[in-house]
């Protein structure tokens, strides 16, 4: 029986008079990989930020582990926030810290792990993403793909229940995209719950259990990858997929 990881109920987001999200309803199941696709400006990244409370919704509910995150107290949010990981398109690594220090910072400060334990666990995650040999390097000596793999290891080190990715390959050179997608595919195989905003259609098709197609601040269509890409029901979805395939 499937269990709900996150549920969205009538989520809206306004910036002044501009409504970016227009009453979003949806469910992410535990162990599921959900990809969110759609044209630029459709609200994909805004939805992601509303889901993990980086920029909470204007109205509506985001239910995680039985609690509405939009109404959670600071202490509850701190506790629940540890269980939600985020990987940004721009890596957000600390340039003055080594790779190992970047990965251990959260576990030491938030989870109060000893330096020894944090280092030991961090090395395991760095191995997992193929970056153990760069533990003592600084971010400015790494390629974009390497930085993003370190960012993934850093998110994993907090042992999240759900991991969000906001366009994880959009800042990368084409030759670095594959190495990052391979790491995400591996995590999908391990059934980590993930929500991925992406413009990599072939990857979305391969890695996802479910896809939400967004346009104009709404989920226009949701389905499994094969159905959505090969037999879309909505005109907007058809038009988008035709355009993407032509590109």
UniProtKB/TrEMBL annotation:
Keywords: Amino-acid transport, ATP-binding, Cell membrane, Membrane, Nucleotide-binding, Transport
GO molecular function: ABC-type amino acid transporter activity; ATP binding; ATP hydrolysis activity
Family annotation (Gene3D superfamilies): P-loop containing nucleotide triphosphate hydrolases
Membrane topology: Peripheral membrane protein
Domain ABC transporter span(s) in chain numbering: 6-241
Entries under SUPFAM superfamilies matching the protein: P-loop containing nucleoside triphosphate hydrolases (SSF52540)
Chief site of localization: membrane
Entry's localization field: Cell membrane
Record-level GO cellular component terms: plasma membrane
Tree of life domain: Bacteria
InterPro entries: AAA+_ATPase, ABC_ATPase_HisP-typ, ABC_transporter-like_ATP-bd, ABC_transporter-like_CS, MetN_ABC_transporter-like, P-loop_NTPase
Homology family: Belongs to the ABC transporter superfamily.
Name listed for the protein in its UniProt record: Amino acid ABC transporter ATP-binding protein, PAAT family (TC 3.A.1.3.-)
């Amino acid at each position: 029986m499937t269990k709900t990881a996150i549920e969205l109920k009538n989520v809206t987001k306004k910036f002044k008079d501009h409504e970016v999200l227009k009453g979003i309803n949806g469910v992410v199941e535990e162990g599921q990989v959900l990809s969110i696709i759609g044209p630029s400006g459709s609200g994909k990244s805004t939805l992601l930020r509303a889901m993990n409370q980086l920029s909470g919704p204007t109205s509506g509910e985001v239910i995680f582990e039985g609690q509405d995150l939009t109404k959670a107290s600071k202490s509850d949010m701190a506790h629940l926030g540890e269980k939600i990981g985020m990987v940004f398109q721009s890596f957000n690594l600390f340039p003055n810290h080594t790779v190992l220090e970047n990965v251990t910072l959260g576990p030491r400060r938030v989870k109060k792990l000893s330096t020894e334990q944090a280092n030991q666990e961090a090395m395991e995650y760095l191995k997992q993403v193929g970056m153990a040999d760069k533990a003592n390097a600084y971010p400015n000596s790494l390629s974009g793909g390497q930085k993003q793999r370190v960012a993934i290891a850093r998110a994993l080190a907090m042992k999240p229940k759900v991991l969000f990715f906001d366009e994880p390959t959009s800042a990368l050179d084409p030759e670095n995209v594959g190495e990052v997608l391979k790491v995400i595919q591996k995590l999908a195989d391990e059934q980590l719950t993930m929500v991925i905003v992406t413009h990599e259609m072939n990857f979305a098709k391969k890695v996802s259990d479910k896809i939400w197609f967004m346009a104009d601040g709404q989920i226009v269509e949701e389905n499994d990858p094969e159905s959505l890409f090969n037999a879309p029901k909505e005109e907007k979805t058809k038009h988008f997929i035709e355009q993407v395939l032509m590109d």
